[in-house]
Amino acid sequence: MPALKSAQSLDKLNGRTVLVDMDNTIVDWDAEFIRRYAAACGRDPQEVEKIVRNRAKFEIEENFPEAERAKVLETVASPGLYESLKPLPGAVEALQALVAEGVDVKLVTAPHPTCAGTCALEKYLSVEQIFGTAFQERLIITRDKTQVQGDILIDDKPKISGCKPCPWKHVLFSQSYNQDVQGKVRLSSWTAWRDVLPRAF
Amino acid sequence: MPALKSAQSLDKLNGRTVLVDMDNTIVDWDAEFIRRYAAACGRDPQEVEKIVRNRAKFEIEENFPEAERAKVLETVASPGLYESLKPLPGAVEALQALVAEGVDVKLVTAPHPTCAGTCALEKYLSVEQIFGTAFQERLIITRDKTQVQGDILIDDKPKISGCKPCPWKHVLFSQSYNQDVQGKVRLSSWTAWRDVLPRAF
């Protein structure tokens, strides 16, 4: 009876707080960066895609030669990048279903230090476009995620540190730069949330 | 030995997390609203000041007749308001001294729902102007302050509610609309922080 089993598992979620990162967890940050960086440098987008999608390091600029890093950071801070991000497959449906299950869903995101203010503005606009105005209330913008209370945090960042011991359990959203992390519950696609998330508690 | 006593009290602060609201706690939101609302309506600023500075209700629009509320909210959302706010006396010195004492100071602020995105942008610009770029890392933007971990929250709002039980102790920053609140440690001026804050723990 897989339907019944699934319903029982989802009961575990009701009343919980699920924090969710945005860039490369909910929205495809890489896709927009690849498009913009290739255009800015006059390079083949497929060549840039190969570097970005297979990168070993979380911080984007660390995957490029020293001479290119200023241009990389300039692209990160280019107006409209954070407003143009498209959702990853299944992400919107998953978060809406979680809300319908009685879950306190919050989007917890750190603004990039090169453009903190405009990044914050664009994140509000992006949430409005993707989820509707009411969802803006669920947005928490902070550089330190360890200060935000919750049961789990779904995030692609390999290691999340800050001022406090982590109050939540880190569910790792799979990306190339976190493949070697062991011992964490891993969400490889939003379509798998019903199976993966109840196991995280 | 008042100097020694004061030093001993301040020891209590080291390593603590002090969350601080912005509008009407760190910056004089009322002053800029009064200026803009009087200009928008062609009214005497002193007349508007009397209403605003003596108001009984926290939400600004609730202190004006029904017919004026749309204009009030339009003023709240007017571009540049949150970027123009000036610090309250002693606020900057107090927060810098707290940081020097080894306190984890975070600014925790809710964007106004009429202008959430631009409000967030302007709050980053405002923090940069008032405290310098490095302080932007201390900004946490959230509608729900009960999800932010800390030892105390200094805030002018009479009652702070959200999804969680409050994890911090609420120190009330005095304003006209919170005069009747009993049973909370009260900070009436930033110049008094050395005496008041150690008593809050």
Automatic annotation (TrEMBL), chains A, B:
<dbReference type="GO" id="GO:0009223">
    <property type="term" value="P:pyrimidine deoxyribonucleotide catabolic process"/>
</dbReference>
<dbReference type="GO" id="GO:0008253">
    <property type="term" value="F:5'-nucleotidase activity"/>
</dbReference>
<feature type="active site" description="Proton donor">
    <location>
        <position position="23"/>
    </location>
</feature>
<feature type="active site" description="Nucleophile">
    <location>
        <position position="21"/>
    </location>
</feature>
<dbReference type="InterPro" id="IPR010708">
    <property type="entry name" value="5'(3')-deoxyribonucleotidase"/>
</dbReference>
<dbReference type="Pfam" id="PF06941">
    <property type="entry name" value="NT5C"/>
</dbReference>
<dbReference type="InterPro" id="IPR023214">
    <property type="entry name" value="HAD_sf"/>
</dbReference>
<dbReference type="InterPro" id="IPR036412">
    <property type="entry name" value="HAD-like_sf"/>
</dbReference>
<protein>
    <submittedName>
        <fullName>Uncharacterized protein</fullName>
    </submittedName>
</protein>
